[in-house]
Amino acid sequence: MNPFSYARPASVDDAVKLAGPDARFIAGGTNLLDLMKENVLRPRQLIDITHLPLREVAASGNGGLRVGALVSNADLAWHPEVEARYPLLSQAILAGASGQLRNMATTGGNLLQRTRCWYFYDTGTPCNKREPGSGCGARDGVNRMNAILGASDACVAVHPSDMCVALAALKATVHVQGRQGAREIAFADFHRLPGDEPQRDNVLADDELITAIELPAEGFATHYRYLKVRERASYAFALVSVAVALEMDGDTVRQAHVALGGVAHKPWRREEAEALLVGQRADDTHFAAAADALLAGAQPLAYNAFKVELARRAIIRALDEAARGVTR
Amino acid sequence: MSATTPIPEADGIAACPVSLELNGQRRHLDIEPWTTLLDLLRDRLAMTGTKKGCDHGQCGACTVLVDGKRVNACLTLAVMCDGKQVTTIEGLARGDELHPIQQAFIDHDAFQCGYCTPGQICSAVGMVNEGRARSRDDIREQMSGNICRCGAYPHILEAIEDALPAARAWAGEGER
Ligand SMILES: Cc1cc2nc3c(=O)[nH]c(=O)nc-3n(C[C@H](O)[C@H](O)[C@H](O)COP(=O)(O)OP(=O)(O)OC[C@H]3O[C@@H](n4cnc5c(N)ncnc54)[C@H](O)[C@@H]3O)c2cc1C
Ligand code: SF4
Question: From A78, which residue of chain B is nearest by alpha-carbon distance?
C-alpha cells in the first residue's frame, strides 16, 4: 500500500468537508484496502468514517426501515426486522462473501464496491475503468465473468454485489450527504451503465457520503427468492444471480420485481419484463416470457455465452420458487 | 487537498497513537496508518500465530477476533483498532486449559500442515459467538471463509461440530 494520511472525523459534516478526489472514505475496508494493495487505488488520505453515528436500523416515516450506512452486512442480514420483513435482503447478503467479511463490510461500502473484472485488478493491462482511455483488456480477453447486457465498447464489467441485487428488487432509496446538502437517490438510478465513462460506477459525487439506505414498507416477505449461481457452493462471486419479489393472489401474480446480478454494470431490471407477469398465472410460460424480455438483446462475449441460458433458467426457477413460497 | 499535491512520502506522515487491548493486555502503540492489523501482530509484536496467506481476504488464515467478531486481519487497518479488543489464537486458552475448539482440533486431527489452523480456530470461535450454526451444513457454509489447502475439511468439520456445545458454554463462562 502507498503511504497515506489518516483522518477520523466525528461528524458527517466534518467527513464531507475532508472529502475530495485524492481522499477516500474507509468503512469496512474490505474492498478499498484490497484495491490499494494491488495499486489499483492510491489515495493520499483515508477518512475513517467508522466513528460517525450511522449504525442505526430504525423505522422510517413511511412504514419502511432506514438502515445506517455503517451497519455491517452481518448485522443487517440477521437484524430481526430484516429477517422478518425483508428476508430477500437477508438471503442475498448471506449468499455473499464470508462470515469474516460480512462482519467487516458495511451497507454503504457494499454499494460502492468495485467490479471484480480481472483486468481492472491487473495494473499491467489496459482498463478504461481504472485508467480512462487506456482500452479494455476484458472485451477481447478472458471475459467469462463479464457482462452480457448494457455494456459499452469502453467497458464490459459487472457490478459484483449480491446485496445490491436484492435492494434493486426491493426498490430501496439511497440517502447521501455532500457539501451542498443531502439528497435521496432511487436505487435504480444509483448505479450507472458504463457508456463512455466506465470510471464512474454510480452517480455519487466525490464529496458525497452515503448516510443510509431506506427500504419501503412492502418487503415481500412471503414470496421471494435470491438465487445465486457460482462456481463453488459458497464464497464465490455470482456468475448469475436473481432476486425475485412477488405479491401473489392465489395463483395470480399481483406485483413482480425481478433483478439480475452478474450480468451488467448495475443490478439489471426491466419494468416491461415485470409487467408481463402482473395479472397472469404463475406458470412456466409466463416466467419464460418474463425471462426472455429481461434478457432480450443480450450480447455475450467470447467466453460468457453460457450466461444467457444460465440466467434464463435461473430466472424461471427463482420465479417458480418465489411464487410457491419455497425459498428457505 | 489540491489535485497537484504530491503523494506524501512515508516519513512525512506522523504515526498515529493507538491504544488497544490485545489478548487481555493493554497496548499503547504508534502506528503508521498503512499498517494492517496482520502486519502489526506479526512484524511488530512478534505474535506470529496469526498467519498471512493470501493477504487479500480470500483465504481466512489471518482471522482474528475484534470485539468478539471474526475479521480478516489483512484487510483491517491497525489504526482503526484504536480502543478495541483484539483476540488472536495466542489468547484463546485460559492458562493451561485450551479452548474447546483448540482441543477438538487436536482430538480430531483436524490439520495437516497447520498453516490455516489458527485462522480456522479463530473463525470457529467467532462463528460460535454469532450463534447461527446449528447443523453440519450451517458449519460448512459459515466456515467457507477459511480455506485449507491440505483439504482437511472433513476433520475440521467434525472437530467444530463436536466442540460446539462446549464452546458455547466456554463463551458463556467468559461473560461472567
Ligand atoms: C474475498 C472476497 C469475497 C467477496 N465476495 C463477495 C460476494 O460474494 N458477494 C458480494 O456482494 N460481495 C463480496 N465481496 C465484497 C464485499 O461485499 C465488499 O468488499 C464490501 O461490501 C465493501 O464494504 P466495506 O464497508 O468493506 O467497504 P470499503 O472497502 O470500506 O469501501 C469501499 C468503497 O466505498 C467507499 N465508501 C464506503 N462507505 C461509504 C459511505 N458510507 N459513503 C461513501 N463512500 C463510502 C469507500 O471510499 C470505497 O471507495 C467480497 C470481498 C472479498 C474481499
Ligand atoms: S471490462 Fe471494464 S473494468 Fe474490465 S478491463 Fe474493460 S474497462 Fe476495465
Answer: B132
Residue where the block lists cell 466456515: B143
pLDDT at B3: 40
Contacts of A4 in chain B (CB under 8 A): 8, 13, 33-34
Q: Which one of the ligands is nearest to A264 CA? A: 2
Query: How many angstroms does the Cα of residue A110 sit away from the middle of ligand 1?
Result: 4
ipTM comes to: 0.96
CATH topology of domain B16-91: Ubiquitin-like (UB roll) (3.10.20)
Which ranges constitute the DSSP H helices of B59-152? 100-107, 117-130, 136-142
Residue A66: which H helix or E strand, with range? strand A65-68
Which of helix, strand or coil describes residue A190? helix
Residues 6+ apart with CB under 8 A from A193: A150, A151, A152, A264, A265, A266
The grid coordinates listed for A283 are: 406458470
Residue A214, beta-bridge partner list: A66, A173
Fold entry, domain A5-50: 3.30.43
Q: Which atom of ligand 2 is nearest to the CA of A157?
A: 1
For B100-175, CATH gives 1.10.150.120
Q: A153-173, pLDDT tens digit by residue?
A: 999 999 999 999 999 999 999
Please state which CATH class domain A223-324 belongs to.
Answer: alpha beta
- Provide long-range contacts, Cβ within 8 A and 24+ apart, for B133-141: B133/B164, B136/B161, B139/B164, B140/A234, B141/A233, B141/A234
pLDDT in tens, B1-36: 334 344 455 667 889 999 999 999 999 999 999 999
For chain B, the domains span: 16-91, 100-175
A192-199 mean pLDDT: 98
- Cell reading at B150: 491440505
